[in-house]
Amino acid sequence: MSGGRGYEGGRTRMVSGALHGGTVVLLNVYDLSPANEYLYSIGMGLHHSGVEILGKEYSFASGGGVFDSTPKEAPGAKFRESIELGSFEGGSAELSSAISDLRDEFGPDRYNLIKRNCNHFANALVWRLLKRTIPGHVNRLANIGQCCSCLLPKKLLEESPVGPNGGGGGGSGGGFQVYGRDKKNDSISTQAFSGSGVALGSQDSGSRVPLLGSWRGGKKKEETLTDRREKARMAALARFEAQNAGSDRE
User: Fold this and answer.
1) How far apart are CA 61 and CA 59, in angstroms?
2) pTM for the complete prediction?
3) Residue (of 149, 153, 150, 169) closest to 48 by Cα position
4) Which of 10, 53, 144, 230 sits most deeply, having the most CB atoms within 10 A of its CB?
5) In this predicted model, what pLDDT tens digit does every residue of 105-136 receive, in sequence order?
């Protein structure tokens, strides 16, 4: 979601202020949808992220809570980039303590796509380790989505697209397209219209009623300005002839 740049998958970059000297902390960012190829350049996109440190990548998902995995290999997502955030001066004990402190807040049943997702966890863990936040673009779409979260299905909000054991956290898939997902296992598939109709612009041989025709008494097409003018002219001519006929009788 970094604004102004196109896709540069697989790269590693360092944000301003990242220092060397301890254990490097990386934010691994993934694409969750092919739409990111277009959204990324304008600072938007559907992203998954995980924090890589000491050889493991830590993330959060519904059903699994906080989990670790092989770095840069999140199932169901396409790796985009690693962002070097800084250096952690502690060791494995301090890391374990930081993660343990977050397990209650990011429990298996507390996932929410808009309010508490994998990027929120990454931000919380990075703050614990480095006292800084992750780049804002990574979770921008969720932040924007908070204003309309009430319009989204609860099932969609509570299932993560990426999780442990090689799939989505909820086990049945989220409501948007994800790389690597087996479509046969999707349980959320919204069908906008299931009736027998004719698609707009299709060349069906049967009768078609224009979009405006149903409330215009079955009229096949809207009258043009020329048609209306011709009708007005004919009406005026008829009135003129009627008036002349009346004068002749007098």
Assistant:
1) 7
2) 0.60
3) 169
4) 53
5) 999 999 998 899 999 999 999 999 999 999 98
